[in-house]
Amino acid sequence: MEFIVGNKKYSILNHELYINYLMVNEYFRHYSKYDYDIHFDFLNPILSKEKIDFDDILEGTKDLEELIEKEEITFIPAGLRIDEHLNENFRIRYQYLEFVNVKVGEAVPLLIALTTLLNHRPIVSLYQIEEELNHFLDNFRTYRND
């Protein structure tokens, strides 16, 4: 999948995007700072399996592709700005929120979490979103270092 933010083209393999949704779903189920009722319904088939193999991920990826094609799901909020640092990390900005030195592998999960919180009902304040996403990045980075 390719997407454009700020006149710059980015790409991610569709199955990698699906795996990122799985990671964000797991974060909101078990690790979020606040309690949200956040769940991605299109993940139900894979989450109900006892054992998951790559074919299951590819099948789920097809479901995600259909949702994206129908514009029923997106992970790029309107007004998002992404800048690259000289060290090839990113600065991600949305309104007054700013996340700096976001690594390549952190960017898409962060965008999924941001968009999900922006669309959440009841509405989540930008202050709480900032707090939650900093907690998300801390957890993500801690997990990667374990």
Q: How would you characterize this protein structure?
A:
There is one protein chain. This protein has 146 residues and is an alpha+beta fold. Helix content is 50%, strand content 16%. The chain has five helices and five strands, in the order ββαααβββαα. The strands form two sheets. The protein has a three-stranded antiparallel β-sheet with strand order 3-4-5. Strand 3 and strand 4 form a beta hairpin. The radius of gyration is 15 Å and the shape is globular. 20% of the residues are buried.
Distance between the first and last residues' Cα? 30 Å
Low-confidence stretches: none
Work out the helicity level.
Answer: 40-55%
> If you compute it from the alpha carbons, what radius of gyration comes out, rounded to the nearest whole angstrom?
15 Å
Sheet/helix structural class: alpha+beta
**β-strand amount:** 15-25%
Number of strands: 5
Mean pLDDT: 92
Count the DSSP helices. 5
The outline comes out as globular
Run of helices and strands: EEHHHEEEHH
Strand order of the largest sheet: 3-4-5
The major beta sheet can be summarized as: 3 strands, antiparallel
Outline:
The protein has 146 residues and is α+β, with helices and mostly antiparallel strands.
List keywords for this structure.
146 residues, alpha+beta, three-stranded antiparallel sheet, two-stranded antiparallel sheet
Helices, strands, pairings?
Layout: E1 2-5, E2 8-11, H1 14-30, H2 44-47, H3 54-69, E3 81-84, E4 90-94, E5 97-102, H4 104-119, H5 126-145
Antiparallel strand pairs: 1-2, 3-4, 4-5
Helix pairs in contact: 1-3, 1-4, 4-5
